[in-house]
Every structure is written in structure tokens, then in C-alpha cells.
Design goal:
Layout (H helix, E strand, L loop, with lengths): L2 H15 L3 H20 L5 H31 L12 H26 L9 H27 L8
Helix pairs in contact: 2-3, 2-4, 3-4, 3-5, 4-5
């Protein structure tokens, strides 16, 4: 990405995501995805690489969904700081979990890359972690939709 392209994207992100909580959630997910792709670069086993690329493609498709949730959350509850808005606390929690799960997915892929010899179960551990990322992004979308439908603040479990 060139300098001017990056600057334009940064301004677009500022306008759509703000500079607070929702921007951080989006950027964390994006960094996790970048890290996963970096791990792929060192995989030498062709079968394992093919499995991990399939997972990478599935995870990459989530980025636009995460962005859409963050943009809508910023529109409903603008954030320029790190305070979690009560009505959308569940949305933020689901996005945070998705970012954490994506990081552990990249970590699991890195462990497979470092494995000596053939990996008997392939990328099963990576796939399991990736499935939790999908579930958490879906949960964030569901919570955002429920908040819109109810018009009521989301209750925060204790």
C-alpha cells in the first residue's frame, strides 16, 4: 500500500470507525489476520499449507463483517476513547473475543508450522479455533441486531 493510499484509508477509517474503542476492535482483528497470513509464509508441507490457506480464506471473509459491525457500533455509540458503551457492551465483548480467538488461531498455525514430521491430524486444531472466531463475529452481529430491534440497552451479565 502506497503512502497516499494508506493516508486515504486512515482518513476513511477515522471517519467510519472513529479513533476509540470500535477502531481498536477492528484494527486488532485486522492485525490478527495479518499475523495468520505471515505464519502461512513459512509452511513447507504442501497439504498442511493447503488446509491453512482454506482457513485463511474463511477468516479473511470475516474482516468485512467485523468492519460493518464496528462502523455501525460507531454510528450508534461514537467512541473516541476506551470507555465501553453500556448498550453495546456485549457487541464489544464478542469482538474482543473474536480478536483473541484469531490470535490463538494464528498461534496454533505457527505451532503446526514448527512441527517436526507429518502432522497426523492436519490443521484440525487451527480449524477449531477458526470456528470460534466465526461464532464470535456472528455473536457480535446478533447482539448488534438485537440492540437495534429492542431499542433498549443490552443487559450486562454479572
Amino acid at each position: 500500500m502506497g503512502f497516499f493510499t494508506a493516508a486515504r484509508q486512515g482518513r476513511r477509517d477515522d471517519a467510519e470507525l472513529g479513533k476509540g474503542l470500535w477502531r481498536r476492535a477492528h484494527d486488532r482483528f485486522h492485525r490478527g489476520l495479518d499475523r495468520y497470513h505471515q505464519v502461512l509464509e513459512g509452511v513447507e508441507d504442501e497439504l498442511l499449507y493447503a488446509e491453512l490457506v482454506e482457513v485463511a480464506n474463511e477468516l479473511s471473509e470475516l474482516l468485512e463483517r467485523v468492519r460493518a459491525v464496528c462502523v455501525e457500533a460507531q454510528r450508534r455509540s461514537p467512541s473516541e476513547g476506551l470507555d465501553i458503551p453500556g448498550p453495546l457492551a456485549g457487541v464489544h465483548r464478542a469482538l474482543s473475543k473474536a480478536g483473541n480467538s484469531l490470535a490463538t488461531t494464528a498461534e496454533a498455525a505457527a505451532m503446526l508450522r514448527l512441527a517436526v514430521g507429518p502432522v497426523p491430524v492436519g490443521a484440525a486444531s487451527v480449524r477449531r479455533r477458526a470456528e470460534s472466531v466465526v461464532e464470535q463475529v456472528t455473536d457480535a452481529e446478533r447482539r448488534l441486531a438485537e440492540d437495534a430491534a429492542s431499542g433498549q440497552p443490552e443487559s450486562i451479565p454479572g
